[in-house]
TrEMBL record:
Lyase found in the keyword field: no
The species this protein was found in: Dipteronia dyeriana
Localization (cell): Nucleus
Keywords assigned: Coiled coil, DNA-binding, Homeobox, Nucleus, Transcription, Transcription regulation
Family statement drawn from the similarity comment of this UniProt entry: Belongs to the HD-ZIP homeobox family. Class II subfamily.
Highest taxon of source: Eukaryota
Designated name of the protein: Homeobox domain-containing protein
Keyword Iron part of the UniProt annotation: no
Start-end of DNA-binding region: 89-148
Gene Ontology MF terms: DNA-binding transcription factor activity, RNA polymerase II-specific; sequence-specific DNA binding
Coiled coil: 153-183
Gene3D superfamilies: Homeodomain-like
Amino acid sequence: MADEHCNTGLGLRLGFGEYVACRERSEKGNNNNNNKPMDCNLDFSFSLCPKEIKSLDDHVKHKQTMVDDQDYPVNINCDYSNNNKNTTTERKKLRLTKQQSTLLEDSFKLHTTLNQSQKQSLAEQLNLKPRQVEVWFQNRRARTKLKQTEVDCEFLKKCCESLSDENKRLKKEVQELQSLKEGGSQFIQQLPKAAMCPTCCDKIMKKNEAAVIDHVVLKNNKWHSSYSGTN
DNA sequence: TAATCTTGTCATATTACGTCA
DNA sequence: GGTGACGTAATATGACAAGAT
């Protein structure tokens, strides 16, 4: 089975073979626009699945050897997955060294995307494949975006909390003012009719309302000055 | 010139490996 | 030693732009 999968272009083509092979072709600078998908299959199957690997066990051993022999293990994923995923899917994961990570991070600080030549030279410096550099940058951009989203989310959450608190406080204040206003009116209404002339009574009522409005305006101004200060 | 195809690159989602508690 | 969480390299997929036909 493993033999079959490793040495037939078809199985690989249905996975990611075409994509990778086309990439590799472009990375080699072979961009002559001879659009022949079959070329991709051939390139891919030879590069990823050397003929000496005859069985699945051999494949695993071979991968182990590659890992042991190199500072930067080469990923030689041979995708058996589509047919017998549960037993044979194996993907050796590259771990970047500290120096590699540092250099990649430094490059990312300079430019978050790479052009062809930047990618190529960085890959050479790092002793990685251009595709690996490209993938690293893609993942790095995704991580950056995710972190930024988290930060934004946290900020919005705090804004929401503070607005909610402010809303509660204002509601309470409105209630207080409402009762203050009602209390004042009631006091005047409770006075004996003969105790105050109607004109004076009216004046006091209006003054009372004006005082409430002043109070609200003052509070509002205070709120504006403090809230705009925090933002 | 418009339509179509191919290719390369990106963002995004997902998978799977390695490490650590 | 087994296990789950986590970080991250690798893969899959779809969208889009640019160039060729």
